[in-house]
Amino acid sequence: DGVDVPPGVTANLNRALALNEDLCRKTPSHSEDVRNYANACWRTHRMLSGDEGLDNNQMLSSWALIRACEFDPGEFGSCDYAGASFYLGGNGVEMNERTAATMWVRSCEQGRQADCVNAGRAFAQWGDDETAFKLQSESCDQTPSRDACGGAALSAAHHFGATHEVTTKYAKVACDRNDGWACYQYASNNYYLGVVDPLNRFEFQKACN
Predict the structure, then answer these.
(1) Cα separation values, 141 from 80, 84, 116, 145, 201, Å
(2) Closest CA to 166 of 199, 137, 204
(3) How far is CA 182 from CA 11, 133, 192, in A?
(4) Distance between CA 74 and CA 38 in Å, rounded?
């Protein structure tokens, strides 16, 4: 990407594609080879995306991008990129929300907390609140944020129940990060469960604001 190609080299693009695709189809024999395989799959995807002088081939481009994510040891951000690409249907691949979620889960496992939230939202959309809660709560526990903790509270409300102690726990954390719905849920839980909380009125007001 971004490399000036000398005149007359364009004719070798198909050869370059064949070499990269061949390596991408193989299985690394040693752990140190993984980076080379990930890079070969990445190059295959980019060359088939339609942006580098060759025609777009969505099927092969998608396959290569998935392989790049699978080989990525977590250093290149391939899975984050793949998740966004499949979710939006951009960068030479077809839109596929299920594949996007799979890529985001892999990225989440590599420590990218934003993709834990992205994957959680996808599973929540499909009604799998248990998986959504697992992804978002782990992200909230590691790196508390409005999106992660608010998502964990909402998924908990659907999975465990609106007044469950787990819902209340994550609603409080999300409320502290200015999630209006979470403030309402936290204050409501304390009210209906008969918990005496001097901040109750404040939390309701915070939710209203």
Answers:
(1) 21, 24, 12, 9, 26
(2) 137
(3) 59, 15, 15
(4) 10
Residue type at 40 in one-letter notation: A
- Please report how the helices 146-159 and 180-192 are oriented relative to each other, as an axis angle in degrees rounded to 10: 40
Prediction pTM value: 0.83
Q: Mark the ranges of the chain whose per-residue pLDDT is less than 50.
A: 1-2
Tokens of 114: 């934003």
pLDDT tens per residue, range 27-60: 888 766 899 999 999 999 999 998 877 899 999 9
Q: Give burial (CB, 10 Å; 0-12/13-18/19+) of 196.
A: exposed
Q: Is 125 exposed, middle or buried (0-12, 13-18, 19+ CB in 10 A)?
A: exposed
